[in-house]
Amino acid sequence: MFKPVTIKDIAKELKLSTSTVSRALRGGYEISDETKKLVLDYAEKINFKRNPIALSLKERRSYSIGIVVCEVANVFFSQAIDGIESIAYSKGYNTIISQSHDKYEREVINMEHLANRSVDGIIISLAAETKNYEHIEKLHKQGLPIVFFDRILESMQTHKVTSNNVKGAFEATEYLIKKGCKKIAHLANSEQLSITAQRQIGYKDALTKHHIPFKKEYVRYCEHGGSMKDEVEQAMISLLNLPEKPDAIFVASDRLSMGCLAALKKHHSENIIVAGFSNSDVVELFSPSLSCVRQPAFEMGQIATEMLISIIEAKYPVEEFETRILDTTFSPIA
Amino acid sequence: MFKPVTIKDIAKELKLSTSTVSRALRGGYEISDETKKLVLDYAEKINFKRNPIALSLKERRSYSIGIVVCEVANVFFSQAIDGIESIAYSKGYNTIISQSHDKYEREVINMEHLANRSVDGIIISLAAETKNYEHIEKLHKQGLPIVFFDRILESMQTHKVTSNNVKGAFEATEYLIKKGCKKIAHLANSEQLSITAQRQIGYKDALTKHHIPFKKEYVRYCEHGGSMKDEVEQAMISLLNLPEKPDAIFVASDRLSMGCLAALKKHHSENIIVAGFSNSDVVELFSPSLSCVRQPAFEMGQIATEMLISIIEAKYPVEEFETRILDTTFSPIA
DNA sequence: GTGAAAGCGCTAACAC
DNA sequence: GTGTTAGCGCTTTCAC
């Protein structure tokens, strides 16, 4: 079976004590240069690596951080993960990625598992279904550092990173208005998500500015964030069947944008103009086309990670928390 | 700080020894039902969870399996990951996902890290850049169970899962031929990958069957799997500038397919017909359109995981290895 | 400058 | 049926 070299093996080989070896390895100042070199060279030679499991047990921390996102297949999240990893690795942390698939139960299980696994902190974007936050609050109260990004929990006292959802939504909606559209529908994520509220504000603001009345009938929520089969298509059908059929749609998330375009194509309504949040890197290939609001996902991941590590490594309990709001970029089609 | 309950706390509270508690918790037959109930109830009440770190240290295994893929943003891999997780979780294992981004160095670091992290085994699909396999062979020799999927290492004695790359490529190419194309180019991944060789065989077979000569000039390899900026576009440009400009392209992977379509659009060559490997779930939205060969990614992940766990849990060293080849599905456009 | 020993949380042989 | 003890690999007092 797989049996790595231990500090003991080195000690035996070099006729030293394990403590001396340990100290030499971590460059303890008490050790003579001679011994230090001896140990270091030998360790190098046999490719010794400290056992992080033992270290974790000893230090009650693991130098790993947990990530909870709805799914890695979503470009926004995979970019964010890349950002998280870039910072984490550079600071000596590893990451453990877990997916909630927008399910509340999965999120609960994932969080518990990460906590048991002794991650030093968690970076999370809430699942679409999550309405109860006890599982997070409990861990937070127990002292586990938690940072939110994208889909944040406003009520929790901790660091948060979002993009400027209001402005992003405003720009997209105003673009549709300037295109001459008057009946602009809004396809949204589940109602209780922070991003849903924010993006709806931007949508409404744009309507108001241009004297277009806001109509509740034009708004559809996807409770499962589009993870449920047919969820998005059903929402789209009900919009398309409205007596006053929309001439444009503002879509509030990546996954919904894809579902929206697919539904328009399927139901031969390509004349409806779509603008929405999406970080897709192949958006120029889409037909019907999509004007999109892009979030700085990579950077959001980086910042969230810096924030998390700052809490983890803080000498004293952190009392002051920050919410960073990054700008989105709007890329209209033509 | 975050301080979970330990078995010791329970022992103290219940005035028992830690071993009794430990045994009761795992349902040891020697413990009286009375004590067992006492312990179980109390553990339940205070929401006790065994510390997996301590367990790992003790048992020299972690009940976690490592995954190495080029990137999670790639649909094929994210689907495979979902398959892996489905089996892993059901059998009590956790997963640690790591991305090579098709870089050799990253792959080496990831593998080492996973091994140090005491994963019980690794499921890997090779990076496009990887040409040297010592990092894998070393761990394998040390007894770490390894299973390959998709981009496999033929020379290693272990379980492997692939899709029927030859047949998939054959079908796609033949489809192009039946569409009336005669000058069919081939955009491929890096040359040393198993899938590259296999898919090229299928491509050639189809040409041969229909009496079209194979031309080396029509083949382009992407050494970095398309992860390098402009890599795919450059390859495409050189194909488009050929004296005998191709009238169709068979593309050998998901990422390349996207790059290929983007390049065709950018260089106004939408008349060229494209067929290629892709597991994209929004392929019907693409323009130019893509006829695609789909791999059963989820199932491949599941099978790989079952194989891995069978090695991990084998009582005796496994000597007989299996290579499972799953069928692809071809979805032509129109 | 180096070694012996205790302890992180858990399990399992070995008492009793 | 339950307790004692040693040990997984490592760090870190405390001796010397």
Outline the low-pLDDT stretches of chain A.
Answer: none
Strand order of the largest sheet of chain A: 2-1-3-4-5-11
The name of the CATH topology of the largest domain in chain A is: Rossmann fold
CATH homologous superfamily designation of the largest domain in chain A: Response regulator
What is the alpha-carbon Rg of chain A in Å? 25 Å
Arithmetic mean of pLDDT of chain A: 94
Structural category of chain A? alpha/beta
Q: What is the end-to-end distance of chain A? A: 61 Å
Q: Spell out the helices and strands of chain A N to C.
A: HHHHEHEHEHEEHEHEHEHEEHEE
How many distinct beta strands of chain A? Answer: 12
Biggest interface, chains and residues, is: A-B, 48 and 48 residues
Strand content of chain A: 15-25%
**Overall geometric form of chain A:** elongated
- CATH class label of the largest domain in chain A: Alpha Beta
The CATH architecture term of the largest domain in chain A is 3-Layer(aba) Sandwich
Biggest sheet statistics of chain A: 6 strands, parallel
Question: How helical, in percent, are the residues of chain A?
Answer: 40-55%
Question: What structural keywords apply?
Answer:
homodimer; 334 residues; alpha/beta; Rossmann fold; 3 domains; 6-stranded parallel beta sheet; 6-stranded mixed beta sheet; elongated; DNA-binding; transcription regulation (chains A, B)
Describe this structure as you would to a colleague:
Chains A, B: InterPro entries: HTH_LacI, Lambda_DNA-bd_dom_sf, Peripla_BP_I, RNA_pol_sigma_54, SBP_2_dom. Chains A, B: It comes from Pedobacter alpinus. Chains A, B: This is LacI family DNA-binding transcriptional regulator. Chains A, B: One of its GO terms (molecular function) is DNA binding. Chains A, B: Keywords: DNA-binding, Transcription, Transcription regulation. Two copies of one chain form a homodimer. The mean pLDDT of chain A is 94. Chain A has twelve helices and twelve strands. In chain A, helix 5 packs across helix 12. In chain A, strand 1, helix 5 and strand 2 form a beta-alpha-beta unit. In chain A, the strands form two sheets. A six-stranded parallel beta sheet of chain A has the order 2-1-3-4-5-11, sandwiched between helices. A six-stranded mixed beta sheet of chain A has the order 7-6-8-9-10-12, sandwiched between helices. With 334 residues, chain A is an alpha/beta fold. Chain A is elongated, with a radius of gyration of 25 Å. The N and C termini of chain A lie far apart (61 Å). Chain A folds into three domains: 44 residues, no CATH class; 134 residues, Rossmann fold (3-Layer(aba) Sandwich); 130 residues, 3-Layer(aba) Sandwich (Rossmann fold). The interface between A and B is large, with 48 and 48 residues. Chain A binds a DNA duplex (16 and 16 nucleotides) through helix 2 and helix 4.
